[in-house]
Structure formats: C-alpha cells, structure tokens
Amino acid sequence: MSTDFGSGVREVIVIPRAGDAPAPGLLGALRGAAEAAAQVALAMGEVAQSAVVAIAGPPTNAVLDRVVPAVTDAILQRLNITGIVIERVDLRVIVVTVLDRLDLTDLVIARVDLARVIDAALDEVDLTQIVLDRVDLDRIVESVELDPILDRVPIIELADYVIEEVDLPQIIRQSTGGVAADAIDAARMASYRTDVGVAGFVDRLIFRRKRALEAPGEPESLSAEEQTP
Amino acid sequence: MTTFSQWRRGEGKSVSSSELALPDAARAFQGERAGFISRMLACLVDLGLIAAVMFGIWLSISVIQLIFSPGVDVTPPTAGVLVAWGYALAAIYWTGAWATSGRSLGAWLMGLRVVSSKGNRLSWPKSFLRALFCVSFPVGLVWAIFSKRNRSLQDIVLRTIVIYDWYVPEPDKVTVPRDVA
Predict the structure, then answer these.
(1) Can you tell me the distance from the alpha carbon of A41 to that of A74, in angstroms, rounded to the nearest whole number?
(2) Please, how many CA atoms are within 13 Å of residue B48, restricted to the half-sphere of its CB?
(3) In this predicted structure, what is the pLDDT of residue A59?
(4) In chain B, positions 116-175, which contact chain A (CB-CB < 8 Å)?
(5) Which of A204, A208, B87, B144 could form a disulfide with B36 if both were Cys (CB 3.0 to 4.6 A apart)?
C-alpha cells in the first residue's frame, strides 16, 4: 500500500499477501469479503489521516498512533459491513466456487463422527414403523425365492417334531385299535370285579375280614408310567 | 409345549405317555394279587389257543399226507394222543411265556403277569416246574378262591405270584440322543 502525502491524488492498492490465499470453506470466503471491506475502511481512514496531516503539518508517530485507530474504529462503526457484503457481494458465486473446490464428502468422512450421527438419527426414528408404513412387504415377500430357504429348513426334523408333539402314533392307534383296546379293558375290568365279588363272597362265608393282596415289586405298567415325563 | 428349538436340542419328550395310559379305575389295583376268575379265564384262553394250534398242526400234517401219498386214510387222532400233545404243548408254551414276558396270551388278555416272590420274572427252571404243575394238576388253581393271598397250590409250592399288570412298555420307546441319529 502506498500513500502520496504530497499530492492531492490518493490511491489505494490492495496487494494480497503471500498468506492471503483463499481460505477454504464458506467461512473463509465470507472472511475474505469482510477483510476486503475492512481494508476499504482502513484505506478510507488513511485518506482521512493524510488529510489531517496536510492540514495540521507533518505527522508524528504519536499522533498517528492515537488518531488512526480512533478514526478507523469510528468509520467501522458507521459502516454496516454485513449489509455491504450482502448487498455488494455475489455470495452465490462465492459459495458455488467454494463448493466446487471442496470435496464435501471427504470432508464429512474425515471430520464427522458418522456412527454417532447415525446412532442419534436411529434413536430418533421408529425404523420398524417406517418400514411398515413405507415398505410394500408383500411385494418383497413375493419376490423372495423360497426354494433356497426351504433347502435350509430341516423339514424331516420338523415333521418328526410335529409327529411327536401331536403324538401321531397314538392318534393312529386310537383310530384303528381303539375299539379293540376298549373291549380288552372292559373285559379285564369285568373279570377284576368278578374276582373281587367272588373273593368277597367266599370271605363272608368263612368269616374272613379282608384278603392281603399286596405283592412285592412293582407292576411294569405303573413303573413304565413313572418313567414317562 | 416343547418348541421346535427345544425339541432339536433334545429337551423335548421322547416317550409317548398316552400309550401307557391306564384307565383310572384300573390304576389302583395294578400289582395286586389276581383273583380266581381272571386267572381261570386266562387259562381257558390259553387252552383254546393250544387247541387251535393242535388243530392247525393236525390239519397241516393231514394236508401234507394227502399231497404226498394220495388215498391215505386221514383219521383224527385219538383222545389219548390229543391229551398227551395238549399237555406237552401247554407245558412248553407256559414255560416260555412265563420265563420271558411273564404272561401268556390268556394272561395278557386278562391283564395278568406271573412273577417270583420278589416280583421279578420267573427263571426258566421255575417256569418249567410251574408249567408242569399246572398242566398235571390244574385243579390247584381252585385254591385261589379260598386263599387269603389269592394263591393257587402252584403258587404256594413254587412261591410264585400272579398279579394284575395291564400294560407293558413298548420296547421302541427308548430315549435316543438325537446327535447319534
């Protein structure tokens, strides 16, 4: 920046410094715009300073040190930099340019804890309900190839399980041999009652109280029942 | 109810309980000493079976005779021969039945079983002796009417017991680990 104190012509040349490379990102762009505006303000301050110097004589560092910040501050206070930027700067171009230069995907992958974001999102939504509401499950099921699934199902085991659970052998026995079994049971019961009747009759004849019919050991029909879960 | 997963892990039942279901009324007297009528009926069934078998044997022999020597005179066996054969068959049949399952066909039909004084199966010699005794002196059974413990003469002499025992477990109802299969 150069200022010609002697002449009436004032030039402001903005020379970008080596470190002033465009900062990446939208913020950088905005900051650049703000800096440009500030530099304009500074230049205006310096113009004012040179005017003061011209009127009041050669400057001294002390005077400049006091006057320049105050004047700059006063100017900045009077300017609506945000408004100027919004009004004067084509933000869309800046944003588009910045977006063109940036690889947002890489940036997100590098900077964002995606697992946390997804977790938080999943906590917020009822995924099951969404699927029920939005997904045509019938179409999906229709499109499923069943054969490979059935190949993996142990069908014979399943059949064995069903047969065992419904006790199919017993059903078959009941339907085929049920009548015969009932007849045998009835005959056995009748003969048992006759046994008891005959024994009771004889016992009364000979004035015996009761027979001792307990036998040692356990009948197999009862012991087999006990083993049955 | 056992789920399929439990069943696959072998936690399900593997024995059919309903097969062995006793009528409630019969459960109370299972294992008691059987009375005269049931035992006599069982003997009659056995005798009928033996008669049928003898008739079958005679018929078979006659047919074979007619086939191989036509015109031969096929006459029914005499009473003595019949009785002798009947005795022999009955002795053999009862020996085998009592020593193996403890019950002949008649005993099975009436829900009876012959056991030792300790409740076990009869040994072969004891079965044979009892069979001989029963065949040679069937009237000994009548003593069961009067005996306090429903014992026939054969039971008293050979220390055997006849009990009510309606059902037997099926031999195939055995728990097998599924991994083996």
Answers:
(1) 10
(2) 10
(3) 58
(4) 117-120, 145-146, 148-150, 161, 163-169
(5) B144
